[in-house]
Amino acid sequence: MIQLDIFIHLTIAKDTNIKTICKRVEVIILGRPKGAKNKPKNIPKGRPVGVKHVSTNTEVSKKICTACGKLQTSKNFYNTPSVLFKHDGLVCICKDCVGLLFDSYMRKHDSYKKSMYYTCRKLDIPFSMSCYNGGESHAQKADWAIWQGYMKQLNSFRDNNGYGMCFDDSDDLVDDNEICDSLLADSEIDASMKDFKVTPELIINGRICLNVIFCF
Questions:
Q1: pTM reported for the whole predicted model
Q2: Any domain includes 10
Q3: In whole angstroms, what is the distance from residue 99 CA to residue 82 CA?
Q4: Which residue range is the domain that position 164 belongs to?
Q5: Residue 79: strand, helix, or coil
Q6: Which of 39, 107, 120, 202 could form a disulfide with 127 if both were Cys (CB 3.0 to 4.6 A apart)?
Q7: What is the CA radius of gyration of the chain?
Q8: Alpha helix segments (H runs only) across the chain
């Protein structure tokens, strides 16, 4: 039996035709017939008030870090297009362990650039000088570590940034410390050449050496 309040609502509606009222009652009790185009009005939409949404997808992508051995979500790993990690597109160690790896090279080489180069080699990701310079700028602005800025820059517009796919595509390492050492060595040579003088004895000895060479 139709509820009294619904019946009263229908009887005081603008259209009081008994046939129309009966059709409305039929829709309320039995539902709309299959194929009906018009949707019934005043039907609550969405979840009832106070009922929380429960996701049916309970599977979350996780990965074990090969360095620390912890099971972590994929967001804790950097992306990489290297074929060595094409199964899931993530490097084998987590972000925290990448930082520890970089720090270990820093203690050994005392050079940000060289440490980043060897970290890239270990992870099979490309080392790019333009990426390093961009990452250094990122690190200064965001107060990040150098390696964090580099990885951020490397993963920006990966398909179009031109940095490469793996370590084989890397730029040659030109370390600033080695350049300084080379310049220092050149300056020492230049300083020693200041006292060099061409003497008659040197000329005579040079002629003797040339004669000996050409005689043979």
A1: 0.56
A2: yes
A3: 20
A4: 62-169
A5: strand
A6: 120
A7: 39
A8: 4-11, 18-30, 95-109, 112-123, 129-142, 146-154, 176-193, 200-215
